[in-house]
Structures are given as C-alpha cells and as structure tokens.
Amino acid sequence: MSSNSIEINQLNHAASTVVIAETPFNFALGAIGLIFNVLIFTRPSLRNEPCSLYFFSSTCFSLFVVFVSMPVRFLASVYNIDTAYYNRGICKIETFAFYSARTISCWLITCACADRFFHSSLNANIRRLSSLKIAKWAIGIISVTITILYSHMIVYYDIINVSDRFGNITPTCNGPVGIYRSIVAFWFLILYSLCPSFLMLLFGFLTLNNIRRHRRAVSNVPRTNQILRRTDNQLLRMLITQVFMIIIATLPFSIYQLYTAFTSSFTKSTLRIAQENLAGRITGVITYFAHTTSFYLYTLTGTIFRKEFLKIIQRCRHPTRNIVHSTQTNTQIMPIMPSNRKTTTI
C-alpha cells in the first residue's frame, strides 16, 4: 500500500473518530442542559423578563438541533444512513429545517442582546422597547423572516452524485455546483455567523456603556431597584458568555462552507477530499457547542440562574417538603381562628 493511501485511510479514520467521539458527548450536554434551561426560564422569577423569553425561545430551537438534526447528521456521517440521499422531498425539507433552526436560535440571542441595550438605556422611549409584548413580536418576526430567507433551499437543493472521501461516487443532498452554491455559502456565513455575531458585540458594547453611565447612581437607588439591577447585570453576563461561544463555534464552519463553495468546480484528488472532509467534520461538530453549552455557561455566570437550578434540584429530591410545610402551617392557623373570633365576641 502506498504512503498516499495510508494517509488517506488515516484521515478518513480520524474524521469518523471525531464524529463518533464528539457527537454523543454533545448530545448528552445538550439533552441535559437544554431541558434544565426550559425548566429554569419558565420559573416565576425569570418568566416575566423579556431577555428570559428570548433565551427560552432560543432553547426551543436548539432542542430541535440536538434531538433531530444531530442524530440524523451522525447517522449520515458515520454510517451513511440518511433518507435525504435517496428522497428529494426529504432532502429539501431536511436541509431547510436544519439550517433555519440553527440560524433562528442565534438570532434570538441577538435579540436578547438588543433587549439588554434597550433595558439599560437612559432614554425612557428606548427602555419601553424592552417588554414582553415587543419580545413576542420580535420572536415571531425573526422566525418568519429566517424561514423565508432560507426557503430557496426547498427549490434548488436536490440529490446529486459526488466523489466521497474514499473515491467512490455516492448520492448526496446539496445545491447545484456553481454560482448558487457560492451564494448559499455567503448567505450562511452572513446569516448564521457574521451578522449575528457583529450585532451581538455591538449591542454588548452599547449595553456596557449604558451600565457605566448608570454606575454612579447605584448608591442612591432604593434597595428594590438595586436587586432588579443586580438581576439585569447577571442576565447580561450570561448573555456575553453565550455570544462568545456562538462566535467561536460558528465562524470556522462558515468559513469552511465558503471555501468548499469556491472550490466545488475544481478537480480534487482523493487525498484533498479526505483532508477537506476531516476539516468539515471538525468544524461541523464544533458548531453544536453553540447550541448545547448554554445551560453550563448560564450556571457559571448567573447567580440567579444557579439559585433557580438549585431550587429545582431540591424540589426533585424532596417533592413532599412544600406540601408538608403548607399542611403544618394550615394546621397551626386553624385553631387560632375560633379563639380570635371568640375574643372578638366577648
């Protein structure tokens, strides 16, 4: 066997190992963390916060990525099992749904960044934009807009035959080679990575500027307002960590998509295809961290988030504690009622 063939086999083995090792790990992270996100962001202390509503909605789309997109991609990458390779309808809908869900999840975090900027503004008219009503409208508009922007995939994506990393001709679900594939790569880079990341950083810096302007007045505000301000600062810390994770996780895969689009018309050797396949598998797996690590980032950076998480754990460990406590309280109150009534009569 030639050295070239040995290197190709090593690259293909490394690509499969990356997917086999990282995908189950990512799935476990996401399955546990996202379910806790849903439970925590629906708690009374966070339910009425517009920023929490954005977090909750983003979590719902990330659940689709983890429980639907990730297993399907895993089977297709490792075992070459994917009905989208043989059914045109599934090919179009599957690709459209996977790309849309990822992008909507990132844009909802961008909306959360904008909400923190609105909420921290000195202008009362701008502060009014931070409300549950505006958040609900924004979530609906973002979901519909991203869906429309990716609807072209339903039209143009189809099953085509390509040379895989082993040099065999196999069917795959992709767009036509040429200008369209380059446009899709740019579209994905801008919508999924660059534009959300830029807006997240922009709103983040503007929010920090507003906080610096408010800092001198903190000592003069009532205690209730200080508690609310502390909650806002914790939500902002949670948001900043999520923003940096999204940038780090999504940018490499977007650049890889752009590279493959520009070189799709080139004649490539089997070795180069194997090298590109390994790079694609690594960057593709990294993107899942943008959707599976939010719970752990929020737990590390948000005190209020940790407190709500501990309350849920305590309730799971002692489900009858609150019932017993309330029963004892009622039992102690009931005898007092007649005596007070009797005293009043006398």
From TrEMBL:
Main location: membrane
Domain of life (superkingdom): Eukaryota
The keyword Transmembrane helix is assigned to this record: yes
Parts of the chain that traverse the membrane: 25-41, 53-76, 96-118, 138-159, 179-206, 235-259, 279-305
Keyword terms, alphabetized: G-protein coupled receptor, Membrane, Receptor, Transducer, Transmembrane, Transmembrane helix
InterPro entries noted in UniProt: GPCR_Rhodpsn (IPR000276), GPCR_Rhodpsn_7TM (IPR017452)
Entries under Gene3D superfamilies matching the protein: Rhodopsin 7-helix transmembrane proteins
Pfam families assigned to the protein according to its UniProt record, in alphabetical order: 7tm_1
GO molecular function, one term: G protein-coupled receptor activity
A cellular component term, taken from the record's GO annotations: plasma membrane
Domain annotation G-protein coupled receptors family 1 profile: ranges: 33-298
Subcellular location: Membrane
Record carries keyword Protease: no
Topological type in the membrane: Multi-pass membrane protein
Name assigned to this protein: G-protein coupled receptors family 1 profile domain-containing protein
Origin species: Adineta steineri
